[in-house]
Design brief:
Length: 242
């Protein structure tokens, strides 16, 4: 997978991409990140990428030319792909980002993430370049970079070969539709705080049931909205009604 990011602040991504799983994923050739400063594409003689809004009003608007040209350039390199890259605009008006969307995007060969600043984007960028608009939450950030990091991170960890233990992506909170059960490690007794006996029992079937119930309990207590979307088994229902 190739993740291309168009931003005016490429340095913001250096920290994320040079640590931990995202660093290892690049070393294992599971992913490449291509961070492009779209100011490099501007034809404006003062290097500007924004301008005043037609019709007046406050704030500046990102002009179409540098974004169109940067995306065209990135797409040239994508000629050999089976499918054209997804071109994603980060903005507060976008579709709310979820684990399901991360899973969908992880099937692509190339993602192009566009990070805006200023008051907004020229609408022609939306109309003619963009395949998806994504928001990472109902709040307004100063720019799309943090959203692009969220997507790059959540998609990369789903790519085969990226996590050491493939299982961990499968049992994650959200990919099962439930929040994850509690984890414990050694010591079994930490200053009088004991690990639940069931986990020390070696009884795999019982442990599996306990974990399922803990996930259900946690989701019920914290995120009833998630439970409503699930087809729970009869055993799950019984446990929740107890
Ligand atoms: N840019 C500004 N706010 C944003 C948000 N909530 N999600 C994605 N991009 C943004």
């Amino acid at each position: 997978m190739k993740i291309s990011i168009l931003t005016l602040f490429p340095e913001m991504f250096q920290g994320l991409f040079s640590h931990s799983i995202l660093k290892q994923a690049q070393e294992k050739n599971v992913v490449t990140y291509d961070v492009v400063n779209f100011r490099d594409y501007t034809e404006d003689r003062h290097n500007r990428v924004d301008d005043y809004p037609y019709g007046g009003g406050g704030g500046m608007v990102l002009t179409p030319q540098p974004v169109f040209d940067a995306v065209a350039d990135l797409k040239k390199g994508a000629d050999s792909l089976k499918k054209p890259p997804r071109v994603i605009l980060l903005c507060p008006q976008g579709e709310p980002y979820t684990q399901k969307k991360a899973e969908e995007l992880s099937e692509e060969e190339q993602l192009i993430l566009i990070c805006g600043h200023y008051e907004g984007y020229d609408e022609r960028i939306r109309e003619h370049l963009i395949t998806d608009e994504i928001s990472i939450g109902d709040y307004v950030l100063t720019g799309g970079e943090i959203g692009a990091m969220v997507i790059a991170d959540s998609v990369t960890r789903l790519l085969p070969g990226s996590l050491g233990n493939e299982q961990s992506a499968v049992t994650d909170s959200h990919s099962t539709g439930l929040l994850e059960y509690p984890h414990y490690t050694r010591p079994a007794d930490f200053r009088g705080l004991r690990v639940p006996d069931i986990l020390l029992s070696g009884h795999h079937k019982k442990i599996e049931t306990w974990r399922r119930q803990q996930s259900l309990k946690r989701t019920y207590e914290r995120r009833k909205d998630m439970l409503k979307k699930l087809d729970l088994t009869e055993t799950d229902q019984k446990y929740l009604n107890e």
